[in-house]
Write the structure tokens for this entry.
Amino acid sequence: MTAQHRPTVDLAEERLRTSGVRTTRARRLVIEKLIRVDGPSTAEEINKLLKSAVPLSSLYRTLSVLSSSGVLERFHDGAGVARYELAEWLTGHHHHITCTRCGSTQDIDFDAQIESTIRRIADDAGRAAGFDVTGHRLDLEGLCPRCH
Amino acid sequence: MTAQHRPTVDLAEERLRTSGVRTTRARRLVIEKLIRVDGPSTAEEINKLLKSAVPLSSLYRTLSVLSSSGVLERFHDGAGVARYELAEWLTGHHHHITCTRCGSTQDIDFDAQIESTIRRIADDAGRAAGFDVTGHRLDLEGLCPRCH
DNA sequence: TTCCTTGCAAACGATTTGCATTGGA
DNA sequence: TCCAATGCAAATCGTTTGCAAGGAA
């Protein structure tokens, strides 16, 4: 864990306190691991990163607490398996690109101008449907460098 | 089923033939039902629409065949449950907007200009990451008219 | 000390599969 | 006719939960 990761850990732990849950060994370990990976991970993958230091059932509970405290975000990949990553307020807003052949997913960033274009499109379209838009996800799919 | 739905059924069945699979009662029933619903449905919901005329295990097989033939598209909702809808080449390209409170999802369309803007953004970003972009999904989230 | 959190094992729910039977082309 | 498709029941797999023991504040 490098110096720049320290603040992220601190921010996350402060969030846990604010949410009224304790900062435990398992929660700290998961946060520290997720800081170091690029792209969302499954419980199984995190378990491997942790070398099974946290039993799967406890890991799921940990991921659930971290998600509902707003430290992590969860979504489901193409196979329907849950994937977790640090919430955007910790890492910055970003999107995903997934390889349709090998299934790997990585984070991608847009510059501010592009991002605001997307946000405007989302807001307008949502309003037309009577929705109050609070967020968007733009997932790209294609063939990754290794697969084409 | 109204007149305009006929061609969709025909196109879908032709696709099945092309894919080398048979057009069976269950497959036809599923296609006909999905033409009439707005937004992607779960196997459970489709089963209800079909009044259990197709046993769940067969329904899952049907949905799997229709998906790999390209007649349906599958994705997973916030709860991780698979949802199916007619493929875009049958219905036209569209996006989804989901209510963060009640979980309902509906289809939304963008006009051609907006859509081409999105496509350009997706292509550029993908290329920068070394990907050959083949598609994109822009999912909006917010509060639906009934929930706010 | 006081609850929250953990670990284990058992339960769950969505989805898949083996196998004998049925039914499209 | 012939092989794909079906129905049923049993199996899988990711995920959740009850409960007694352990640990953070």
Chain A touches chain B through 40 residues (CB under 8 Å). DSSP finds six helices and six strands in chain A.
